[in-house]
TrEMBL record:
PANTHER family: IRON-SULFUR PROTEIN NUBPL (PTHR42961:SF2). Transmembrane segments: none annotated. The lineage of its organism: Bacteria, Thermotogati, Deinococcota, Deinococci, Deinococcales. It comes from the Bacteria. Homodimer. This is Iron-sulfur cluster carrier protein. It comes from Deinococcus xinjiangensis.
Length: 350
């Protein structure tokens, strides 16, 4: 019966990877117990955007097997690195960048980390905006201080279910850092290699705006899975986003997708939709790169950031939070697709 179940499951494809669950090694358990087929599927990410589709397809296929009266599908997850892990214990490093400031990049990065962690992934967030660190404030941890372990490695702080490091927790509040390129490079090296991040599925890196020294240091220091570009709909932001894309292209960093922030505004009293900055401009750039999502302008996102709780946790049912959650899952899906290239053609089924 085990072989019959596997044969049925081999007809079910992962909708994003376009290969069957068996050859991808995603089936951990397939057995018949009292007429009920017990199927456990290990997804390529706990934030899988198409989990419901996979469950539906598994049920339909397995119910065709003789002797199966019902199907019980359970899920696990095993995030696979794209080739060799970027750093010891860290499977994927994802850069969140923008061509200019003021597009809500840090807010998006914080909510991406919170959403992935809520879905069950092991997540870290590195605030690499050394001159203007804001992540600690958005997480309600601006007064916390980083400590070291017995091996003299920095211990990342923990907030809302994920780890983070920010210069704001290492320097006195309000102190300006007047650093040149070599000092920035040294700081980034320490954040990455002299910190005890432990085991992470994703390390989200909030970059400073623009295309400067920090971006170059990161792309030259470690193997990065890819970058995400945050922009707003107006032309001036899209022009700068195109420059950021060109920088990553020259640094051989794949662009995993675009996120259009402040895409539109829904009036809370009437429900009318207003395109305050235009809308859909990112789709022009999205002809070459996936548009991961359009996030509406929502004052609660700002209020939640000031209160120290990511919007996806404070107001999970709001339109902005749902859009941010969908973006995080689309991003996880894009990472899984990229990881497929490093998988063998046929994996062993447990």
């Amino acid at each position: 019966m085990h072989e019959a179940l596997l044969a049925a499951l081999s007809t079910v494809n992962d909708p994003e990877l376009h290969r069957d669950l068996v050859s991808l090694g995603m089936i951990e358990r397939a057995e018949l117990v009292g007429g009920v087929a017990q199927i456990k599927v290990n997804l390529t990410t706990p934030a899988c955007p198409l989990k419901g589709k996979i469950e539906q397809d598994v049920r339909s296929a397995v119910l065709e097997v003789a002797g199966v009266e019902d199907v019980a599908v359970t899920f696990g997850a095993m995030v696979r690195p794209a080739g060799q892990p970027a750093l010891n214990g860290i499977k994927h490093v994802v850069l969140v960048g923008s061509g200019k400031g003021g597009v809500g990049k840090s807010s998006v990065a914080v909510n991406l980390a919170a959403s992935l962690a809520r879905d069950g992934a092991k997540v870290g967030l590195l605030d690499a905006d050394v001159y203007g660190p804001s992540v600690a404030h958005m997480l309600g941890e601006s007064q916390a201080k980083v400590t070291a372990n017995a091996e003299r490695k920095m211990l990342p702080l923990v907030a809302h279910g994920f780890k983070f490091l920010s210069m704001a927790n290492l320097s006195p509040a309000g102190q300006a850092l007047v650093w040149r390129g070599p000092m920035l490079h040294s700081a980034i090296q320490q954040f990455l290699k002299d910190a005890d991040w432990g085991e992470l599925d994703y390390l989200i890196v909030d970059l400073p705006p623009g295309t400067g020294d920090v971006q170059l240091s990161l792309t030259q220091t470690i193997q990065v899975t890819g970058a995400v570009i945050v922009t707003t709909p107006q032309d001036v932001a899209l022009i700068d986003a195109a420059r950021a894309i060109d920088m990553f292209r020259k640094a051989s960093v794949p662009v995993l997708g675009l996120i259009e922030n402040m895409s539109y505004f829904v009036a809370p009293d009437t429900g009318n939709v207003y395109d305050l900055f235009g809308r859909g401009g990112s789709r022009k750039l999205g002809e070459q790169f996936p548009l991961l999502g359009e996030i509406p302008l929502d004052t609660d996102v700002r209020k939640d950031a000031d209160a120290g709780t990511p919007a996806v946790l404070a107001h999970p049912t709001s339109a902005a939070s749902q859009a941010l959650t969908a973006v995080a899952r689309q991003l996880a899906g894009q990472i899984s697709v990229r990881s497929l290239a490093s998988l063998p053609d046929q994996l062993t089924v447990v």
